Amino acid sequence: MSEPLRPAADWELASMIASFASRNQPIEIVGNRTKARVGRPMQTAATITTQSLRGIKLYEPTELVMSAQAGTPLAQIEAELAGNRQMLAFEPIDLGPATGGVAGVQSVGGVFAANLSGPRRVTAGAARDHLIGVKGVNGRSEVFKSGGRVMKNVTGYDIARGLAGSWGTLAVMTELTFKVLPWPESATTLVYAGLPDEFAIELLCAAMGTPYEVSGAAHLSAGLSRRLGHSSLAAAGAALTAVRVENFTQSVAYRKQRLADVLSAYGAPIELDYGETLAFWGELRQLRVLSDMPSCLWRISTSPRNGPKVVAAIRRHMTAEAYYDWSGGLVWLEVPASADAGASDIRRAVAVHGGHATLIRADPQVRSSVDVFQPQTPTLERLTRNLKAAFDPQGILNPGRMYAGV
Asked: For labelling, which of 4, 9, 81, 119 has a CA lying 20 to 30 Å from the CA of 213?
């Protein structure tokens, strides 16, 4: 395989894309390749990486806004924010460990291109909700800019949000402007052991319905909890249900107690202090409990109370380990490796109970033979093709990664 091309400026990237477009040759678009194993395998003439497009261009802590080039490592972004006790509120997850890579090397462009948000999404919103401006180059080799540095500057079509979650199939983002928020002064986590999935999700939904500003609501099956780095929790050998509260120190103490009172019917919780809370949720962000290769990994989005129903329906056909996030609205499901990664049974369960499923980890031959992303309705497919035609009429950017022929 030839070395990837590394443009260092928008004009250079546009020139490269124009050259391949003139020959109608497809291109693979990557950042630091932490998500390269997600999606349908592609046949491309070359690879273009944004690794040389790096650096923080703007950071105004008082205005809670930052701009960075797409290839800037997320670790650099978070370190800079931590110096001012600020953060990316949507708590981006890291697919590296779950897809056979390493943690901590993904780029900020990859974070928004995949729109994969972490546990705090239940209160802070998705990655796309924090993206307020973007520069990039589309498949026509046109350099474009959308949005601004403050929300009031975002007018017309919201291209930034449209590109979030497009996995590099519409354009190559070169610079992003996004909102940041203050880091909470204190945090604690209440962990309940041994609850069946249905009761666990009932607990999480009840916690989210309280006025105590729960910022994390997750449940791990027993098989996954044993993989935790927290020795005491792993040694419990039971399913674990976790509720996180963040705020000022005095407020956290009050809310923790009130929340424990509300949830007393589910038993006495294990309490994690601030340091343990950071470590626990940091581990979940990196999906380290889901790094059991060569099993297949699915990401299923559904309504919170339907999460256990979807998993139960799938478990009638295969063994499965589940990590429920977002109070049950997101399920990371680890299933045995097979010829179709369990796609037919999983998609049937999702069709019955509602939602959509994405295959995150499987061998290339499996990903080439099944729908990796949720099959689209005719209306949505028509919209997707129209967007592709508008941004990349020759279909040269990551062709077929999400859907065949797109």
From this structure: 81
Could you give the residue ranges of the DSSP H alpha helices within 147-269? Answer: 159-163, 197-208, 222-225, 231-236, 249-262
The reported pLDDT for the residue numbered 149 is: 65
- At 322-352, the pLDDT tens digits run 999 999 999 999 999 999 999 999 999 999 9
CATH code linked to domain 292-367: 3.30.70.2030
- Count of C-beta atoms within a 10 Å radius of residue 155: 9
The pTM for the full model equals 0.95
Tokens 């978070």 found at: 78
CATH 3.30.70.2190 domain span(s) along the chain: 186-288
Which CATH number fits the domain 186-288, given the four candidates 3.30.70.2190, 3.30.1070.10, 1.50.40.10, 3.30.470.20? 3.30.70.2190
**CATH class name, domain 1-183+376-406:** alpha beta
Q: pLDDT grade, residue 148 (50/70/90)?
A: confident
Tell the burial category of 153 from Cβ atoms under 10 Å away from its Cβ (0-12, 13-18, 19+): exposed
